[in-house]
Amino acid sequence: MKSKAPLRILIITTLILSLSSCIVEKEDKRQEYQEHLLAQASVVPGSSIEESTIEEVIAGDIGFSTLKSIVESTNFIETFDTSKPFTIFAPINTAFNKFPKATIQKLIDNGDTERLSKILNCHIIPDQISEEAIKEAIKTNKGSVHLKTLGDTKLIATLKRNTIFLIDKQGNGGRLITTDVKTANGYIHTIDGVMMPKE
After folding, report:
1. How far, in Å, CA of 102 to CA of 168, rounded?
2. Model-level pTM?
C-alpha cells in the first residue's frame, strides 16, 4: 500500500498541473476573443458614426489600443483633421501579435515616428472606399486589385469566400472583419493583420 501512495500523489499532481495549464490557456484564448469583440463593439458592420471621426473611434475602442498608441505618437491626428476623406484598414490588437511583441512597442518607446508613420501609411487610402467597391474592383480585374495607400504602398486585395484579404509587399496578409463603418471623415474597415512597408 505504501509503495502506491507516491504514485497516486504523482498522478494527482500531474493532473492538477495539466488542468491548471488548460485553464490558463483557455483564459488567454478567452481574453483574445473578447479583445477581438471589443474592437467591434462600437464598430458594427454597415454602421454609421457620423459625428465621430476615425481617430475618435480608434481612441474610444479598447480593441484598438495598440493602433491608438501609434496614432498618438505620430502626427496622424493632424492628418485626419482635414476636410479630405480617408479609408483606414484598422488593425485590431491581436493583429499586432503576429509580430514580435517588442517590435511595435520599441518603435513607440523610442519615438520612431518616421517608421511608425510609414506603417500607418500602409493602412490608409486617401479617399472613401467601401467594401462593395473593393469587391467590384477585384471582380473587374479578374481576381485581384492593387490599392494605393497614403504612403504610395500598393496592397493586393483578393477575395476568398466573399471575404476581402489584403497582402503587402512583404507578404503579410490580413482579412477584413468589420467593414463600411462610416465616420465623419471616412470609412473604417477592421483587419486582423498588419500591413508593412517594403524595406
Report:
1. 21
2. 0.75
